[in-house]
Amino acid sequence: MAGDSHIIREVGNLERLSTARHSLGIYRCVIVTARYCNGNFDSEASFKSFFFSALSRVVLRHPALCCGFVDEDKRDASFVGLREIDLNRVVRFQTYDSGDGPSYENGQRKLLEHEHLQLWEHLETNPGWRVVVSHLPQADHETVKSQTSMMDVVFAFHHAVGDGLSGAVFHRSLLKELRSTTSTFDPTKPCTPLVQLPEKIELVEPVEKLLKFSFSLRFICGFVFRALIPSWLLGKGPIWAGAQYYLSSPEEFKTHVRHFSIPQEQLKCILSACKAKSVTLTGLLHGLHVTLLAQMVPDADRLSGHTPYSLRRLIPKSEEEVAVQVSVLEIDFPSRFFRSSRNAAGSGEPDWEEVWKVARYYGKLMQREVDRAPKDNVVGLLGFIGDYHDHYRKLLQKKRKSTYEISNIGVFGERACISSADVHEDGSGWGIHSMIFTGSGMVTGPALGATVVSVQGGPLSIAFTWQDGIFEEAFVDNFVDNLETSLRELSSKEEKVVSILETPK
């Protein structure tokens, strides 16, 4: 990117977590992918010009997309405003190989694994985001019964640029601009790939300046106690968190990705079952993670689950911002939560009584966490870390403390395009069929990452990522298969119950 950059502000505490991790090579990016349904274009050049026209307006709408970083390797990294962005350097166009299957899952997986491998280069003159547009061959669009074209738009971004919800914000903005551009685009006037950026870029302030964090004496004492007193001294067994493998160099970094989708019809039944048990979908997923992992690792004494959650409800006008406004709840699950499951090692079928027990426990703790925020919140403690690079270097020498993470960014609030009628409903020919949300495999964080997103009226997507060396691929494949099967079986059982209740007497 040509031109000088200028410092806007220092990164905040949450953002510094990610600039430090990226500098050390132990976390690369967050990705939110959307499968778009769209009209046909006369030529590749015409489509590229059209897409650039829409994307340039998205960039100008979100200040965080107009920035790079300096001094990532130092204690105080900063955002810098860029003068311009050459879209040819941050956007790549490709077509899936027809050998990747009818829905191109293999192509998606390979693309996501490749993008999660990449480090961000020359951030002082380049933005911390990129886009890959992958067209599905016209001959095979099984996901949408229509004559429309389809493409996956991968939005990969530095975690200091935004949180998971920021990826959904980006796609909401892009969909809006694609629809708007449809009525104004003139193919005889090619769009320049150079986006000239404003001289004054007003970034959202970091969360520690937007929220007033406070702490009770009980919270502080508990935090210090847990940090200083080893678990064995309290009679607790170690947390099982996969192999204690850490990178000897950033070159060894590699993220594995697995993914499956649950159709809307089955999702409705799953949500109905959750409602009947007074639990959330995220709670259900915690229950399945704990019980299925306990079966696969019967000698595990304790499991631990992380749940990132948004702070945006506490911050006015933040719903449509690309920013990092998230906290995390960590829950310890001792063996009393999964005794029966552990005794059923190898069955692959969850103990549903224990599943719902874990789900309710998660719901109780999460509700308490949300109700008291921003009081007694771990994000408020980040300012006490000091040197974040040193913090992560020390973590690289310690045992991992968390088994898994479940990050659910919820429902994308645009109705999914399932048929040609949906695609052309608003006259623009643009819609989104489904989405996938993934994060890089974590080196110092939870061993397994599960990320969740759905589209209104469309499928639920659950993806799994892990760092190479923590698990054997066969272990995760088995776990993912068991979890998917459990969800589909729950859907089938609930469907039968609903059918019986709705049958006329």
Would you write up a description of this structure?
This protein is α+β, with helices and mostly antiparallel strands. Helices cover 36% and strands 22% of the residues. The chain is built from 14 helices and 16 strands. The strands form four sheets. It has a six-stranded mixed beta sheet with strand order 10-16-15-13-11-12, sandwiched between helices. The chain has a five-stranded mixed beta sheet with strand order 6-7-8-2-14, sandwiched between helices. β15 and β16 form a beta hairpin. α1 packs across α12, α2 packs across α5 and α9 crosses α14. It starts with 5 loop residues before the first strand and ends with a helix. The mean pLDDT is 90.
Brief summary:
This protein is α+β, with helices and mostly antiparallel strands. Helices cover 36% and strands 22% of the residues. The protein has 14 helices and 16 strands.
Largest pleated sheet = 6 strands, mixed
Helix content: 25-40%
Specify the structural class.
Answer: alpha+beta
What is the ordering of alpha helices and beta strands?
A: EHEHEEEHEHEEHEHHEHHEEHHHEHEEEH
Based on CA inertia axes, which overall geometry fits? Answer: globular
What is the CA-CA span between the terminal residues?
71 Å
What are the low-pLDDT stretches, counting only 5+ consecutive residues below 50?
none
The number of E-state strands comes to: 16
Mean pLDDT: 90
Q: Count the helices. How many?
A: 14
User: How are the strands ordered across the major sheet?
Assistant: 10-16-15-13-11-12
Strand content: 15-25%
**Radius of gyration from the alpha-carbon trace, in angstroms:** 23 Å
